[in-house]
């Protein structure tokens, strides 16, 4: 084949632009060699750099679809998005991110959070979630377990529907409407804890927690009702799957 040690073309194409046009028939390829060693080939569908690196100093952009970038040691992405792919799918490695936004996070190792932000509500702290949390094994808490402020429940025909573990009972008709009786508390399940208090001291906000048997009733100490007539009175229950079983109480005056 013909060999040219140096090729320099400086001309004007018919359309007025300076261009160099090289063409081979369909099915053929271009081949660039250094010292008779192939360094790059170009066909109608692919460019093969034969293991050589690509170095650019002026930046630019790449378009189209890239199916395999091979092994890339350093990638610095400063904008845009990475869509529709799995990172670390074949070889798992460490990564550092300032924020991760997604729908599902699944891991097989330890999740360790170094942030020390205090939790003062259901939406604060180093970890918080809009839903519930399931823990299959033991839960160790070195700090304080906080119930938060008591949720207010107004008795209706002897019934309340609990929504949390700590509640203030309001007599039917509203605070100060007169003594009332609590017969059942729905919304609980086996293993749930429930702490109850009343609104204020005095007969007009007094609540009698009635002893009973059956769904969502209260199994009281000694089978006797408990009259709550002081702001600092408390009673605590554990749900047995059917009823609320009294654990402890405090009666103040």
Task: Sum up the structure in keywords.
single chain; 253 residues; six-stranded mixed beta sheet; 14 strands
Please outline the helices and strands:
Elements: E1 30-34, E2 37-42, E3 47-48, E4 151-154, E5 159-161, E6 166-170, E7 180-182, E8 184-186, E9 193-198, E10 207-209, E11 218-219, E12 226-228, E13 234-239, E14 244-250
Overall morphology: rod-shaped
Instruction: State the end-to-end distance.
Output: 111 Å
Q: Segments where pLDDT lies below 50 for 5+ residues? A: none
What is the subunit organization of this protein? single chain
Strand and helix order: EEEEEEEEEEEEEE
Q: What is the architecture of the domain at 151-250 at the second tier of CATH? A: Sandwich
CATH fold field value of the domain at 151-250: Jelly Rolls
Structural class: mainly beta
Quick recap:
0% of the residues lie in helices and 23% in strands. The protein has strands spanning 30-34, 37-42, 47-48, 151-154, 159-161, 166-170, 180-182, 184-186, 193-198, 207-209, 218-219, 226-228, 234-239, 244-250. The strands form 4 sheets. A 6-stranded mixed sheet has the order 4-6-9-13-14-11, with no helix packed on it. A 3-stranded antiparallel sheet has the order 1-2-3, with no helix packed on it.
How does this model look, in words?
With 253 residues, the protein is mainly beta. Among the domains are: 20-53, no CATH class; 151-250, Jelly Rolls (Sandwich), CATH 2.60.120. Helix content is 0%, strand content 23%. It has no helices and 14 strands. The strands form four sheets. A six-stranded mixed sheet has the order 4-6-9-13-14-11, with no helix packed on it. Strands 1-2-3 form a three-stranded antiparallel sheet, with no helix packed on it. A three-stranded mixed sheet has the order 7-10-12, with no helix packed on it. A hairpin with a 4-residue loop joins strand 13 (234-239) and strand 14 (244-250).
């Amino acid at each position: 084949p013909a060999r040219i040690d140096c090729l320099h073309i400086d001309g004007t194409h018919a359309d007025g632009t300076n261009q160099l046009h090289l063409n081979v028939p369909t099915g053929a390829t271009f081949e660039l060699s250094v010292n008779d060693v192939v360094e790059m080939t170009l066909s109608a569908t692919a460019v093969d750099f034969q293991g050589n690196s690509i170095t650019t100093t002026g930046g630019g952009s790449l378009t189209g679809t890239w199916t395999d970038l091979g092994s890339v040691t350093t990638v610095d992405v400063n904008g845009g998005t990475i869509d529709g792919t799995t990172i670390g799918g074949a070889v798992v490695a460490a990564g550092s991110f300032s924020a991760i936004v997604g729908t599902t996070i699944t891991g097989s190792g330890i999740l360790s959070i170094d942030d020390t932000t205090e939790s003062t509500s259901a939406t604060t702290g180093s970890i918080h979630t809009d839903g519930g949390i399931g823990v299959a094994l033991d839960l160790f808490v070195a700090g304080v377990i906080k119930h938060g402020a008591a949720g207010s429940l107004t008795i209706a025909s002897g019934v309340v529907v609990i929504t949390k573990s700590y509640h203030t009972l309001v007599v039917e008709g509203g605070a100060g409407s007169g003594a009332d009786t609590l017969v059942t508390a729905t919304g609980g399940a086996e293993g749930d804890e429930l702490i109850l208090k009343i609104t204020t001291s005095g007969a007009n906000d007094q609540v009698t927690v009635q002893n009973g048997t059956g769904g969502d009733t209260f199994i009281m100490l000694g089978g006797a009702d408990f009259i709550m007539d002081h702001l600092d009175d408390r009673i605590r229950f554990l749900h047995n799957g059917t009823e609320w079983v009294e654990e402890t109480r405090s009666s103040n005056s």
